[in-house]
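re: that complex we talked abt at group meeting.

here r the seqs, copy pasted straight from the sheet so there may be weird spacing, ignore it
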Amino acid sequence: MLSHIRTLWLVFLHLFRKKETIQYPEKKAYLAPRYRGRIILSRDPDGGERCVACQLCAVACPVDCIALDGTEDEHGRRFPSFFRINFSRCIYCGFCEEACPTYAIQLIPDFEMAEYNRKNLVYEKEDLLINGEGKYHGYNFYRVAGLAIKDKDKGEAENESPPVDPKSLLP
Amino acid sequence: MDPTLQSVLLGLTVLFVLLHLAGFLIWVERRLLALMQDRLGPNRAGPFGLFIIVADIIKIFTKEDWTPPFADRPVFVLAPAIIMITALLGFTVVPFAPGLVVMDSNIGVLFFLAMSSMGIYSVILGGWASNSKYSLLGGLRMSAQMFSYEVFMGLALMGVVILAGSLNLSDIVEAQRGMWFVVPQFIGFVLFLIAGLAESHRLPFDMPEAESELVAGFHGEYSSMKFGMFFVGEYMGLTLISALIVTFFFGGWLGPGFLPPVVWFSLKTALFIGFFILLRAAIPRPRYDQLLAWGWKYLLPLSLVNLVATAVVVLIRHG
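got the structure back, here u go
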């Protein structure tokens, strides 16, 4: 009986506590940098597209929402001729990001993508491609680190960059 | 003015106020519950989210009013009306201020008890006419629960009646001029509070609905305004029980003279409505058989002891 009265009193005191609610459109909740939200395509530090159209993301995608095709520019560098993500199918699992060998495809902390028209959820390459490096700074797939040879470690020979630790930002 | 006309006018006013109050209580309950759970509750539509009531009403009126093909149609339609009618009729004997009572009956207590008993029919018939298992279970639970708790609800009030020497609610309030009956009749007050909670089948005694066990119990098959009437009836039952606790145990309209009697009455009633909402937020639902065993084994004997003790004390005093 006493415990019931104590319960009532404690619940009454909660009337005056600070509220947990975040009033969403005005205030926004903190989203961690690794939050899996909208998908983007990033560029390398030199401004070139990171994507090499290897199709690994499309293969990894469990709901088949990624469609792309590759082509080559005049220097023989591969890039996607089109890159289409159907966000009405996407489940934001992040497998594409894990599969990507060049850190091109990335999931960012943004979930505000509601649309009135379902077709507007199909994002084309110009909607996906951003002008920055996204979450992974300073990484360029073409600046290969090479192999360790006699007297020279990885990345010490001509036209080589020091190796990037690809595991450093993985969960 | 003609007393009959005056009664009719007052009755219409009470009807008007109560129906609006029931709508308002939806908002009050949602906000208060939310605040007690460290949330904010509906605060978007209009000032303090008050227009949520309007939105709710528009929603509930525009929903499809669907009667299941397997339901017993006349009874199905009748059931939600009964709960409204009995709850409203219960208010006719409540004195809001000196002379401000729709029906100044000299059997007011009996009339209220009768009306609250009639309210059971709504739930039982609703559960029966829905012709579905969960609804029927809800209705059955309601009948057992009401039956058990009604017995000592009346007995708990008898102490008050002995002290006041009248079944008229205005006389009972007047008899509390020296001391509110909550002091000499504290056990009676607690018993009436518990019984009233069970009668109005509010949480924590919402066995007939029991969302987590019976989905929605007796009104599971109801939609649109028929469901709305159950809802409004529940809030009116809550208001009625609060008003009667105030009338029987907390001196009704009595209070220091700087506020008019109606305001005192409303303030006390509002306080008890808030308390009932606090109960809902704090106390979990007991098991069904526990509730019945508790009622018959402890509360009924306690109310009998209370009744006898009150009678003995009054007899010795007036010798």
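couple things i noticed - The first helix of chain A runs from residue 2 to 13. The first strand of chain A starts at residue 39 and ends at 41.
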